[in-house]
Design brief:
Strand 1 and strand 2 form a beta hairpin. Helix 2 crosses helix 13. This protein is mainly α. Helices cover 64% and strands 1% of the residues.
């Protein structure tokens, strides 16, 4: 976090390194993690007292047992936050359906407003914290990382929406599980994440719950298409859904990695800045015809505003979820969005809830609980790529680094 030095210029505030030997001076931001000096992360907020600095082992020893994480407030925050994010997804899907009902289908263009709003909020705040010159240095040094992240995010949104034009809802929902598979494999191979048997079982239970949802939709005919879909379009739609899920999985892992090492406002600001460019270009190319034939009236304007505000809230809360838990738990938590979608649909679209839906919801929530059985008090907040005591991580909201510095009273 930038603080004012004696001359009034902004300076980064660094956390002391946790080590068994005396801490070395803070290393430069651009220095490699494999260099002689330890990476010392940038603070997003002021440190607590230096004597509050502890180690991960000391924190994890404060509560013991297979249900240690259940005794922390972070567990309930993660559980509730996951459902808030699922409700956000459901709400944006509802607004998209309402727009289509009005005769307005502009999937790329309607997401553009979300990136614009995020850019205004987070990039402006980054300018305030860093100053224009330092922001330019950030773009030159690390911009390529955020360009890739933004590209994956935009393509994940685009291809997932595009898939529903060519394939059935049932097929698209099944293929979306590939995002979870992608996250688990990429995290395991590249970020050295190791999953406990209870986490695997929890994920499988959650997927089983969604299987019940899909089965109930199939029984009631909710997933059937009003218009027949040719075999060629079915294959095309399935490929689009597969590509969208793959891009989502990669973008989630990349964002979890970046937000663990950099301030939240920087990551979201850079994501929005580059995604606005990617998304604007795509909208200009692929949504031109749809934009000309779209209906523009008061309700459409209201739906666009609602869609933009809720999606921006989703993008603001997701990084906190990545810090407190992981990209895997993030994706598993979103599986309840189908249930919430039906609950909203009862009021908005006059749908009826099949008796299997509550059973499926309980199954998914049960899987979320099983996922954390055996986890210690820090849960998944400790990231293996940040070092034993998270010395390579940023000290911000939701990070284990912050808990290490502030002591056991925060868990």
């Amino acid at each position: 976090m930038a603080t004012q030095d004696g001359k009034g210029s902004a300076a980064e505030h660094y956390a002391p390194a946790v080590a068994t030997r005396p801490a070395s001076p803070p290393s430069q931001e651009g220095k490699s993690a494999h260099g002689a000096s330890k990476i010392v992360a940038i603070n997003e907020q002021a440190n607590g007292p230096e004597d509050a600095v502890t180690t991960v082992d000391e924190l994890e020893a404060s509560k013991k047992g297979r249900f240690a994480y259940f005794k922390t407030k972070d567990f309930y925050i993660v559980l509730v936050l996951g459902q808030v994010l699922a409700l956000c997804i459901t709400s944006t899907n509802t607004f998209s359906s309402l727009l289509v009902a009005q005769g307005t289908s502009i999937p790329a263009f309607q997401t553009f407003f979300n990136y614009v709003l995020l850019n205004i909020v987070y990039t402006s705040f980054t300018f305030h914290r860093y100053g224009f010159a330092r922001w330019c240095r950030l773009v030159l040094r690390d911009g390529w990382k955020y360009i890739i992240l933004a590209f994956l995010d935009v393509q994940g949104n685009y291809f997932t929406v595009l898939a529903y034009r060519y394939t059935t809802i049932l097929s698209a929902q099944l293929i979306n599980f590939f995002a979870i598979v992608t996250v688990v494999i990429v995290s395991f191979c590249f970020l050295r994440v190791r999953y406990h048997i209870t986490q695997v079982i929890g994920i499988l239970i959650c997927i089983g719950g969604v299987g019940i949802l899909i089965a109930s939709d199939h029984i009631t005919g909710a997933t059937s298409s009003e218009n027949p879909i040719s075999k060629g379009d079915q294959v095309k739609g399935d490929l689009f859904a597969l590509l969208g899920a793959f891009c989502y999985g990669l973008s989630n892992v990349a964002e979890e990695f970046l937000v663990s090492k950099r301030p939240l406002y920087e990551v979201v600001g850079q994501l929005a800045f580059w995604a606005m460019i990617w998304n604007g270009a795509q909208a200009g190319i692929f949504d031109r015809a749809s934009f000309r034939t779209a209906t523009w009236n008061g309700p459409v304007g209201g739906y666009l505003v609602g869609y933009t505000l809720i999606l921006s809230l989703f993008y603001s809360l997701a990084p906190v979820m990545f810090r407190l838990s992981s990209a895997a738990f993030f994706n598993v938590s979103l599986l309840t969005s189908n249930f919430w979608g039906v609950c909203i649909g009862v009021e908005v679209f006059h749908l009826q809830i099949h008796w299997m839906y509550p059973v499926a919801f309980v199954c998914i929530v049960g899987g979320l609980l099983v996922y954390y059985v055996g986890k210690k008090v820090l849960g998944e907040a400790t990231k293996p790529w940040l070092g034993r005591n998270q010395e390579g991580g940023v000290m911000g909201v939701g990070t284990a680094r912050r808990k290490v510095v502030r002591g056991a009273n925060v868990v």
